[in-house]
Amino acid sequence: MALLQISEPGQTAAPHERKHGIGIDLGTTNSLVATVRSGTAEPLADTEGEVILPSVVHYGESGEVLVGRKAMALVSSKPFDTLQSVKRFMGRGRADVGSDGYRFVESEGGMLSFETAAGAVSPVQASAEILRVLALRGEQTLGSNIDGVVITVPAYFDEAQRQATKDAATLAGLKVLRLLSEPTAAAVAYGLDSGDPGLVAVYDLGGGTFDISILQLQKGVFEVLATGGDSALGGDDLDRVIVEWALPQHGIEAPDAGLYRTCLNLAREAKEFLSEHTEVEVLIPGQPTLTLARQEFEGMIQALVLRTLRACRRALRDARVEASDIDSVILVGGTTRVPLVRASVAELFGREPLSSINPDTVVAVGAAAQADVLVGNKPDGELLLLDVIPLSLGLETMGGLMEAIIPRNTTIPIAKTQEFTTYKDGQTAMAIHVLQGERELIADCRSLARFELQGIPPMVAGAARIQVRFQVDADGLLSVSAREETTGTESRITVKPSYGLSDTDIADMVRASWEHAEDDMQARQMAEQQMAANQLLEQLQAALDADAEALLSEQERAELEAEMQALAVLRQSGTRQKLKTAVAALGRSSEVFAARRMDASIKQALIGVSVDTLDSDGGLG
Amino acid sequence: MVISVTQAAADHVRRHLDKRGSGLGIRVGVRTTGCSGMAYVLEFIDAIGPEDEVYEGHGIKVVVDPKSMVYLDGTELDFVKEGLNEGFQFNNPNVSAECGCGESFTV
Fold it and tell me: Kind of pairing, strands B4-5 and B76-82?
């Protein structure tokens, strides 16, 4: 018997046509699922009443898989077979990570896998297990199959990380309606999408990560203006502060791992208690009781909180807005319950943050609301959510230079086309090297993919017209196509890069592009001059080979060749300015030769054509 | 002619109305669609039409249009839990047959 939910007026679905969408917050530490019932988006609990599913997956010797609390219980006894924080490894290669307490193996394409008792397990497979458990919970709660799912990802996730998340969903047998950025989901949960246009800041302080996002809402569309944060800063750090305050008072200098873990748990409880009370007693087993006042605790964590505020200011700068321009501030993540965090955020933005929705579940609730719209339950739901790409996407041009096609912070979905041409006479193929990054030289950028466009008809250099199209879909996945216009020959690739990047990598790459702006500019100009020199030398050599004997005297030829030789040397060792002067000089020196070739070819063309015919046609006059 | 609401159903309707932030109550009705003839309508209401009949049970307004009333007379709206699944259920004495899933019915 299907149980019914209340619909909006006039929107009762026909029987069997009600679609079921769920929203999943696939988190580093915890994951959860939510859905819309009777017009209300709510997180769903399991049979034991628990909403939060720890993002922990255990693989046993006989192939059994445990997810959540049961897996968590095995973290210390079976550390290699019990995977935590797999989100950090999504879309990452072996080269991107250290040991992190796991046994890694490299699989196909440089992707990383964990070696467990049940064999090699990729982060995608482990994530799929988490998704499966949550989807099943959704199915049981809704009493029907799931038609689609919205999964949230950090706003800074790159193409590889997004693709890995989608792959995990596919593996779990779920249809992804779309990936939604976490801050956007939080804003949707508060219904800001149906409110007035404005700027929204989402301050997300979780257990182990901090993210700040600045969103702009316009005509029902969210655009991520900037993101920032710290992937190694969270509530766990506050717990550690308490432990490091308590242990020395008991004269304990080097606690063993077990004691330290116990202390961390006690510290977390103390921290949570201090969010509601002004004082807490900290009792480490076998030691006298210590009392920690909220004020003292706030003094100890001040520096950590200030770090988050600095990241907020950077994000504001990146978004080119002032703190006072922000219309709403949303708190996400359990750590935002700490009064000092709350007060500091309120002070920075000059307004009280929104916190009426449980900060642990707000992202999943927003994803569920979005899933309900996308699955088709609200025909008038016009909500389109936009994200930005975190790093510029472009391709390699001659001379090893990066040509950005889609600049960083462009909102997606987006498609851009740029025309390129051949560099050499008779060139029939073109290599397309797709890059990501902010630097001028390709060596400083990240290589995403390479492919070739074949079958370009032979033409002189610069005559072919190759349209290169970069398209990034709503989920941040990039496809690149190259098309030769005269023949319609086309070649394309969808980038599923084998390596991902962390937010700190992205931040580093962006920062490096600022620090090296001057070097990069010079490197680019140098490379451009080298290319000009190459091109001139090649063309001139071809011309000499063809016509030197007929058109140049021995001495003229020797002079030109000597000058070419000098330029070839300068190309490797000279400065940009000298190279530029030399290219220009050789250009002038070869003018006479070029003029004679021109005359010769016109004469060739005119042989056998009478002067009368020329005149009657208007001729060459 | 009468429609009733159980305490559990009334509590959940009230909770959803509070969350929604507006609405006068709920509308129950039937529509002639579905694999087995008729289907239930269960919606929030923002306005009551002149032809609507209004009932009240445990403080919740239940509105029925006259056309639906004939199929719903004596119906009790309940809220039930089946494992993790929970939702509203029409206990309708007029029903003679239901499709397998119960989303549609005939009288």
Answer: parallel
In a domain, A617, yes or no: no
Measured CA to CA in angstroms, residue A546 lies from A20, A151, B50 at distances of 73, 64, 96
Closest CA–CA distance from residue A356 to any residue of chain B (Å): 12
Asked if A506 and A525 sit in the same domain, the reply is no
Domain of A74: which CATH number?
3.30.420.40
CATH value at residue A599: 1.20.1270.10
Question: Considering the domain boundaries, does residue B20 fall inside one?
Answer: yes
Residue B103 in domain: no
Reported as a pLDDT band with limits 50, 70 and 90, residue A615 is very low
Host domain of residue B23? 4-95
Q: Do the Cβ atoms of A10 and B94 come closer than 8 Å?
A: no
- Note the pLDDT of residue B71: 79
Strand partners, A472: A414, A478
Can you give the CATH number for the domain in which A503 is found?
2.60.34.10
Rounded alpha-carbon distances, angstroms, from residue A398 to A37, A462, A468, A532, A570:
57, 13, 15, 10, 19
Preceding omega of A413 cis (within 30 degrees of 0): yes
- Substitution target from B12, B41, B90 for chain A, most A beta carbons within 10 A: B41
- Residues across chain A: 621
The domain containing residue A142 runs over which residues?
1-190+360-384
Strands (E), A127-257: 148-153, 176-181, 198-205, 210-218, 221-230
CB contact at 8 A, B95 and B106 = yes
Domain for residue A75, yes or no? yes
User: Is residue A366 scored above 90 in pLDDT?
Assistant: yes
Give the whole-angstrom CA distance, residue B1 versus residue A144: 34
For position B34, which CATH number holds? 2.60.300.12
> Which of B19, B36, B42 shows the shortest C-beta gap to A4?
B42
CA–CA min distance A188, chain B (Å): 15
**CB distance A3–B104 less than 8 Å?**
no
**pLDDT tens track for A435-476:** 888 787 888 888 887 888 888 888 888 888 888 888 887 667
In the A/B pair of chains, how many CB contacts fall below 8 A? 98
- The answer on A371 and A351 residing in a single domain is no
ipTM of this predicted structure:
0.76
Looking at the structure of chain A, the number of domains it has is: 4
Q: Which spans in A350-481 are helix H?
A: 362-374
